[in-house]
Write a structure and sequence with these properties.
The structure holds two protein chains of two kinds. Chain A is mostly helical. Helices cover 78% and strands 0% of the residues of chain A. The chains are: A mainly alpha, B mainly alpha. The interface between A and B is large, with 52 and 51 residues.
Chain lengths: 194, 246
């Protein structure tokens, strides 16, 4: 009885923190209308998203919660038209992040910052279309946004950019983790939330 | 008797009650075909058709004002894209192409998403998800987000107003101030609301280890079946046009 009650509470928590995370991501995503900001989002979103994610980590004590959050990110990205690659990256990196957090028993501060870094890599899924189905993606952007935008867009994504994106997401996720940790200490402890 | 008539006329009101599963399937179809699909051949007909479906649905849902605005905007940019742009060049043409590409691509998905969220109650959503046997571990977080997403946005605007009064806004001196003064209060407010929400959900027996019942009548009607077959047909057509049959 008690365990199923706490499981329901965990699931509600996942929903709450996922919506906060997504609202922040979406507010930042409006910047991507300017081509320059498009790759920069891989830096901005994990850093700012790190704050609610670190808060979420203070609520997780069970294996699987971060994985579910990753899957939900994938589903929402599918429904908002960012393509189906996020389903895959959300699942994989959510699971990896879960394993990292598990190794720190969900309480280690260092491990939770690392978790934030690993989890942030799911964001690469938003860019994978530019690498995996390169030509059709390019044609597609030309037809919908015009030649100039497409050229500007694709010039940001040469093939060597893919590992860079992975690294950038990871590092900014870690920065976000530190930021989240600092803000947690400054604000949320005082408010009695974290 | 009079009261009953008033109530029934208000609820009938041209409204089509779609099954939540149909709505989600339509949403996925629109997202994949309109946002991600090709723009040539048969897709030139499929995309406006899907946009029309979403706009008509929003219109019948009784959101007259917002649906009229959306229809106006869509028709304007659709005409731009197809009739004015081919004869335009230069910077103005580029800007117009950018906006029309953006609007005709994103508006149908946004309209359909808005319609789905506005017309589906959380209970209906859970009942429908239960019928397709999705695990509870995914359904509950999604249902919470369904209910909670608008709340977070509302909080964001409320905090934004409060901070504007204090002179903290975008374009100010320090970008990190914005992070601290706008996102943190938003998170604290949302989390407080979320805790109440989860307590309320537990009180209603969300965590109870029994089979939950639901009074929502979920089922496919003629219009549901019609729309689902339409979507499947559109998928097949788009795949055929991708292979190059047309």
């Amino acid at each position: 009885m008690n365990s199923s009650k706490s499981q329901a509470k965990d699931l509600v928590n996942i929903g709450i923190y996922s919506s906060i995370y997504l609202v922040i991501t979406m507010l930042l995503s409006f910047l991507s209308l300017i081509p320059v900001f498009h790759p920069l989002l891989a830096i901005l979103c994990p850093i700012v998203g790190g704050v609610p994610f670190m808060l979420f980590l203070t609520k997780t004590r069970k294996f699987g919660m971060i994985t579910i959050m990753g899957i939900i990110m994938g589903i929402v990205m599918l429904l908002t038209g960012m393509g189906y690659f996020c389903l895959f990256t959300g699942l994989v990196f959510g699971l990896l992040a879960d394993i990292v957090a598990k190794s720190g028993n969900y309480v280690s501060a260092k491990k939770s910052i690392l978790t934030s870094g690993v989890f942030s890599i799911w964001y690469v899924g938003n860019y994978l279309a530019a690498f995996i189905i390169r030509q059709s993606h390019y044609d597609h952007i030309i037809k919908s946004f015009g030649q100039e935008y497409a050229d500007a867009y694709m010039s940001f994504y040469p093939n060597w950019m893919l590992p860079v994106l992975f690294a950038v997401c990871f590092i900014s996720g870690i920065i976000g983790g530190f930021l989240g940790k600092a803000l947690l200490k400054k604000h949320f402890k005082k408010a009695g939330i974290a | 008797m009079i009261e009953w008539q008033v109530l029934s006329s208000a609820s009938k009101n041209l409204r089509v009650n779609l099954d939540p599963r149909t709505k989600l399937f339509l949403l996925i179809t629109i997202c994949i075909l309109v946002i991600g699909g090709q723009i040539n051949g048969i897709m030139l007909i499929i995309r406006p058709a899907l946009a029309a479906i979403s706009l008509i649905l929003l219109f019948t849902a009784g959101k007259r004002k917002i649906s009229n605005i959306c229809i106006g905007v869509y028709v304007f940019f659709f005409i731009c894209e197809n009739f004015i742009l081919p004869v335009m060049t230069g910077t103005l043409g580029f800007i117009l192409l950018f906006f029309s590409g953006f609007i005709t691509r994103l508006l149908p998905g946004m309209v359909m998403g808005y319609y789905t969220v506005e017309t589906t109650s959380v209970s209906e959503f859970i009942a429908a998800m239960k019928k397709i046997h999705l695990t509870k571990k995914i359904v509950i977080p999604l249902a919470v987000m369904f209910r909670f997403f608008p709340t977070v946005i509302e909080e964001y605007h409320a905090i934004g107003d409060a901070m504007r009064m204090r002179g903290i806004r975008f374009g100010g001196k320090n970008i990190f101030k914005i992070l601290e003064y706008r996102f943190i209060p938003m998170m604290i407010c949302s989390i407080k609301i979320g805790e109440e929400l989860s307590a309320a959900a537990l009180t209603r027996g969300l965590g109870a280890p029994v089979h939950r019942t639901n009074i929502c009548r979920i089922g496919f009607h003629f219009i549901d079946i019609f729309l689902i077959f339409l979507c499947i047909a559109l998928f097949i057509l788009s795949i055929l046009s991708k292979i190059g049959v047309f």
